[in-house]
Amino acid sequence: MRSSHTRSVILGTGSELPARVVTNAALEQLVDTTDEWITTRTGIKERRILEDGKGNSDMAYRAAQRALRDAGVEAKDLDAIIMGTVTPDYPFPSSACVLEDMLGARNAFSFDVNAACSGFLNALAVADSFIRTGMIRHALVLGSDTLSRLLNWKDRGTCILFGDGAGAVVLGATHDGHKGILSARLKTDGSHVKTLYVPAGGSLKPASLESVKKNEHTIAMNGKEVFKIAVRSMEEISRQALDEAGVSIDQVSLVIPHQANLRIISALAERLKVPMSKVMVNLERYGNTSAASVPVALDEARREGRIRDGDIVLLSAFGAGFAWGAAVIKF
Ligand code: ACO
Known about the structure:
The chain is built from ten helices and 13 strands. It folds into two domains: 170 residues, Thiolase/Chalcone synthase (Peroxisomal Thiolase, Chain A, domain 1, 3-Layer(aba) Sandwich); 150 residues, Thiolase/Chalcone synthase (Peroxisomal Thiolase, Chain A, domain 1), CATH 3.40.47. The longest helix has 23 residues. The model has no long low-confidence stretch (mean pLDDT 97). By secondary structure, the protein is an alpha/beta fold. The structure holds acetyl coenzyme *A.
């Protein structure tokens, strides 16, 4: 339960999607698939792919700059930079440290959070806790991923699903008891590690000629299993976040779910009894951008005027781990 009177509010948002568009038609040239199959099974029409020679932090930097400008906060005023990502520029140090230097955020401490598609929700919950305890006043929270670098472009079961992108929010402290992050809930189930993972490239199986030859540095997934558990888990944690916030689903103006598959989103909306008109969907343009999906959708929803002062928004995400989370925010 929340006891502190200090809350965190979203002061600004920003996002960045790479310029290069890869349509379903382009994927028809790479693997045995069709635009029709991808559209009906996932809802995705195209995705963005980061150009060669750029890293995750290049996208994160642009998203961060936009969020800072939107918030009217300067980089030097940031106390923390927390980034949800599974595709940092280097195995170490963190993408957040690279970004800190790019921004010139000299007064911040920075680190990455590895929680795959729910990375942003995890980063948000950590930053929110730091703010509520009084440890920090301003945080830059990001979800930024370059999953194109982890795809096997010969595997039609995975390469059609993902895209690259970055989303950012600036959080600040408030004593206004009526707005801000009302609740945040997180959960994991490590028994599903191998249902969705990258088999090699870590300490267990470091890169070798053999691992590269066997394509073990790319995403391996049991899609059906992910689908089933994603719907159930996002429903459950969304209800828990709403309960903790003391908010009913009818009071929610907009649900911003992880953008993995339109069928997952529709099933979640049905279970939560929310009409699709109150659900943010942009996956037809970007595919599944992993940790970036929720903050990119949040930024677009704000820019489209779908979130107004006083609105209550529910965020919900699910991904590898399995790791999932939800948050309720009053604007
Ligand atoms: N094009 C054409 N056919 C395909 C393709 C493709 N791109 N991919 C698979 N198929 C074939 C399969 O080989 C199979 O053929 P078969 O019946 O001859 O064996 C058939 O289509 C059906 O395959 P399924 O896997 O049963 O298809 P399903 O309806 O489950 O859809 C999908 C697959 C889209 C991957 C779905 O399971 C899904 O979206 N799961 C969630 C996965 C996900 O979103 N992961 C992201 C990370 S976690 C997260 O973000 C939630």
